[in-house]
Structures are given as C-alpha cells and as structure tokens.
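User: I'm putting together a small comparison set for a docking exercise, and I want a reference complex before I start. The sequence is below, and the ligand is NAP. Could you produce the 3D structure with the ligand included, as structure tokens?
Assistant: Of course. I'll restate your input first, then give the structure tokens for the complex.
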Amino acid sequence: MAVSQLSPVDAASSDVSGAPALDHDAIIIGAGMSGMYQLHRLRELGLKVRVFEAGSGVGGTWYWNRYPGARFDSESYSYGYSFSPELLAEWDWSEHFAPQPETLRYLNHVADRFDLRRDMRFHSRVTAAHYDEALRGWAVTLEDGSRHTARFLITAIGPLSAPTLPRIPGIESFTGQSCHTARWPHEPVSFAGKRVAVIGTGATGIQTIQEVAKTAATLTIFQRTPNWCAPLHNRPISKDEMATIRAGYPEMFRRCQETFSCFLHTPDPRGTFEVTEAEREAFLEELYASPGFGIWVGNFRDYLVDREANAVVSDFVARKIRQRVKDPAVAEKLIPTNHGFGTRRVPLETRYYEVYNQPNVRLVDLRETPIEAITPAGILTSAGEQAFDMIIYATGFDAITGSFDRIDIRGLDGVQLKESWAGGPQTFLGVMVEGFPNMAMLMGPHTALGNIPRSIEYNVEWVTGLVRHMRDHGLTRADARPEAVAAWTEHVKSIGAGLLSNEVNSWFTGYNSNVDGKQTRIIARYSGSAPDYRAWCDAVAAKGYPELLLD
Ligand code: NAP
C-alpha cells in the first residue's frame, strides 16, 4: 500500500495504488482529554484527522458530569496536561482540587489554544465502526447515518462514560424532575425548597449529597452499599502558591512518572505490622488529615493485599465515621461491611459524614428496605412510599468495556468486539485487539489508569509512535498477534492475583448490577505499576513492534 495514504496531501483524495480513497487518516471517537491530545499529536505528524464527539463541546468526563459538587479529587496541577510548557505557564488553578466548571474551562482553553475544534465535529455520536479489508481502514457511521472512512480508528471514549440507570420498575413514571448525574442539565438546577432523593453513594453520589444537603428542604439518600470515604481537605491556591507550583512543575511531573499510579502519592514502603501500634495510629492520623488520595494510595504497602493489614486500616476509618456521625445507628449503616478500605475507589469528601447530622437529611438503607418501584410521586421501598420533587440517579457507569459495547465495532470478518469480549476483554497492552487492525484504544481495558491524564499522555504518545512508525515504513495495517494478546491478557490477570480489590464487586472489576451479563467480576484494569506498564510498552516500540503483524 502507498505511503502516500498517510501523507496529509494525498490521504483523503487519492491513492496511487488504486485502493479506494479514505476520508481521513485517522478518526478519533471522543473529544475528552485523550481525544483532544491525540488529535494534537497526530496533526503534528501532518495527518488529516477527524474527531467525532456526541456532546456539544470538548471535555468528555468534565463536559458530561456537571452534577452539583463535581470536582477533582486529585491535585488539580497534577491532573492537567504536561506536554506544553506554554500551557503550563499560562494556566492558573484556583483550588487544590478544582471544581468541574473550572476544569471544563481549562479544557476549552486547551481546545482554543491548539485550535483543536476545526477538526472536531460535535453532536456526532458514533453508532458503528466497521473494519473494511478493501479500504485497509475503518468505516465509521454516525447517528445521522453519515459514513466516514479512515486508516486508523482511535477510541477515546473513556472508561467511565456509559451511564447506567437502575433497573427499577416504574422509573419512567416519575412525574417530578429526575436525572442521572452524568447527564446533568447545562442550566442551573435549584434544590431550594425541594424534597430531593439521591440513589447511589459512590464518589459521584457523595459529592452530590454534600452539595444538595446545603439547600434542599429534605434530602433522602438511598444507599445500597456504603463506601469508605476520606476527607479531601481542599483549599484555595493563592497567586504566590500557584507561582511555587508552577516553578515545581518539572519536578512534580517527574515524580508522577515514578510513582506507582502516577499520583503524587505512592505507597509507604513499610508494612502495616512493621511499625508499633502507636506509630501506625500516628501515620493513619497523618494520612487522614492530609489532602487527597494519600490515605488510599500512599498507605502501608501491604494493606491492599493483606487482609489483616486491611482490617487495621478499615477499623481506623470506621472509628472516624463513628466520631463524625452523631447517631450511632446511622454511623453503623455508613460503615462498609462487605469490603475493606481501599478495595473500591475511595470517594473523597468534604463534611460528607456531617451531612447525616442535619435535620433535613435521612439515610435509607436499601439492605433493610429495598426499593420496589419508582412511582409517579416518588420512591416505594418495602417500608412504604415517599414523595419527592426530584430524584438524582448517582448510579454509576457500565465501566471500562461499556462505552465499547454501545458502539457496533466490528473487525475482520465482521466479528463484533462486544462478542469477542463476552468472556472479558482480551488486549495487547490495553491498546490493540487482535482482529481489529488499525484500531487503537486510549484508556481501554488492561491499561494503567491511575492518574488518568498522566496515563492518557503516555497512551497517546505510544499510539502516535506506532502511527509514525507505520508512516515512516510505508505500512498500512497493524494487527496484534494472537500470542501477544494471550500473553498480555495473562500478564494482566497474573499481576491482579492477590489484590483484595479483585474480590469485590465494583466498577474496578467490571461489575454492574444494572447491565445484563455484567454480574461476573472480570480483570478489567492493569494493576501493576505505571512505570512497569510503560516499560512493557516502550520495549515493544523499541524492538519495532514484533508483537504486531505489520504490513
Ligand atoms: P459508582 O462508584 O459505581 O457508584 C454507583 C452507586 O450507585 C453505588 O453506590 C451503587 O451501589 C449505586 N447503585 C447502582 N445501581 C443501583 C440500584 N439499582 N439501586 C441502588 N443503588 C444502586 O459510580 P460513581 O459514583 O459515578 O463513580 C464512578 C467512578 O467515577 C468513581 O469511582 C471514580 O473513579 C469516578 N469519579 C471521579 C470523581 C472525581 O475524580 N472527582 C468524582 C466522581 C466519580 P452498589 O455499590 O451497591 O452497587
């Protein structure tokens, strides 16, 4: 095949080899953080790229999740892009953990600064993507029926972007306002004087609850499983502090590259029982009083694999909950009993537990009184019906593979990705899938997630490197070798062995009670260290991609 198909001049219009011309060199699905950066990098290679985005603007997660209280719970400055010194120099973060509107402003600023929108098409939900052997490329169909072709298909569709509503009878019958948190209206929503229900107490529900409790007439929280939460300790960033942060950017990003999950925090080298009880208590107190994810990812090195160690940390956090919630019966309901601290994503909170001391707030424990139906007036549990003006569904996502399942992605011989992943995803490096040539996934299953923007930048660089290699060598097709997929998938499984989080139902394990076929836990994420992940990927590139069939 002609190299010219990857040159900016000829790509869309002609092919000296006589193969059908393609509309674009690459189609990227999604204009979130990964799609934006991938567009920028591929354009630098001189490629003709089109991004299709379902929403009306850039931002992905930060575009869709406009629910009250949405904010970073990783340090803002460690969550921005690191690739552009100019961008780092000109953007000030106002809080250590920025609220969603600020992050969305930031991403819009990035889109303006790098003139990204000219290659993006909004209101363009991709419904299908089929590999076409004759094209040696992909034909992508949008919701409006239009068809677009490209050599490469790059999915930038996010691990948490397919929202799921609970499967409760009568959900359509409710006559008040209702909304999933990830489909929050763009207009302001007032809770003043309203009887509000929140279903779900994950990281999203907890941020929502804190905010709604401030103004709602009544707030009723429907909790099925309590989660272990820890304080965020957010505060504003002064001008002087921002200057210090900016001066420290090179060192901070270098540290992020070295830590286990690219966070600023990294596991403490000590084992839980290698210190005295007093030292342990003091360390946990220090973590509980510190901002961000330190208590989750900067804790004793063994507490996420050793049950006894985990029980010690969990007991510590349970004591904190009991101290903060006045009603002992309510406190007990808020303490998880079916999983240990840190084995699910730890929601970070600001006075979340104190919300339950407010007279306008009530906790409904669905383990005692399950929801039987949503009614036109409100919610019916086994204890009776309660009327509401508004129901907020903070019920999470069909995570990791869900956004892939919602697109009819077909590879060689019309094989559907959803079908081939029915028993769990099979990938090479979490980026490539055998039988789906020229498709690359950003933040797909089996990649290192951790500090997502750091992982995105790495994923994008790797994919860009592969595309550059193909261009430079006149190659037009890349497919993962089956043995490479088997080896990587096995590697991902083996490093996940022994992790307590893999024994727990949560989005980490691809579990979702609201989606058919997702009640089996899978190994959905790469759980080794980010440096190890990068070492694997770098080695593949350095050797010239022997694990890929390239022609
Ligand atoms: P989630 O963690 O999956 O939580 C969903 C909640 O809804 C759970 O409490 C779940 O209960 C409940 N639920 C689901 N179906 C239900 C049903 N049929 N009946 C009753 N309750 C039901 O989802 P999320 O809170 O949206 O968070 C997902 C992830 O997004 C987080 O873990 C995090 O990675 C990310 N996130 C990040 C931020 C941030 O960075 N600041 C903020 C929010 C979210 P069960 O536990 O019983 O299933």
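The domain at 8-58+116-162+399-544 is CATH 3.50.50.60 (FAD/NAD(P)-binding domain). DSSP finds 18 helices and 20 strands in the chain.
User: Thanks, that's exactly what I needed.
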